[in-house]
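COMPLEX REQUEST
Ligand: magnesium ion
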Amino acid sequence: KSGFISIIGRPNVGKSTFINRMVGQKIAIMSDKPQTTRNKVQGIVTTDTSQMIFIDTPGVHKPKHRLGDFMLKVTRSTLSEVDVIMFMVNADEKIGTGDRFIMEWLVKSETPVFLVINKIDLVHPDQLFEIITSYTNEMKFAEVVPISALNGNNIERLVETLESYL
Ligand code: GDP
Ligand code: MG
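STATUS: Structure written out below.
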């Protein structure tokens, strides 16, 4: 099994930390040419059973007026071409404007969208439930997976679940 996974989320939710952990080294493949490649490959992960190619969707957290028409098209087509979209959010923050901006796109997506709640090491389970609900009340997700990219908590389950969508 192999496939493409796009990671979307506003700055500082832990996207790079997650990819670095998956790849197991600081940099796998990276393009330094901004906007010349439509999809920025961030890391390729090969397990016993699958190959997963993680890509970034540049600028997706930025309000529309700050994105050109070209970038909007790129973003849209990226979302439709991957196998899974990982929407990453902070476990210690309720839904905010930046998240809602991204969800405007995601809600229209025909690609399965995972809600990945990162940094669960920072919150009490009761608080986590409240945070998750603040997202799931607004949109239906294919899967909801809480993780800690920093300490590795529940990453294996996320990978298994991703594999089942490839
Ligand atoms: P990005 O902007 O989405 O790529 O976020 P980064 O990967 O750069 O992470 C932003 C900050 O969050 C860094 O200081 C990370 O160390 C921290 N961080 C990432 N994942 C976790 C996590 O699971 N738990 C905690 N406590 N901090 C995290
Ligand atoms: Mg980053």
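REMARKS: The longest strand covers residues 2-8. The radius of gyration is 15 Å.
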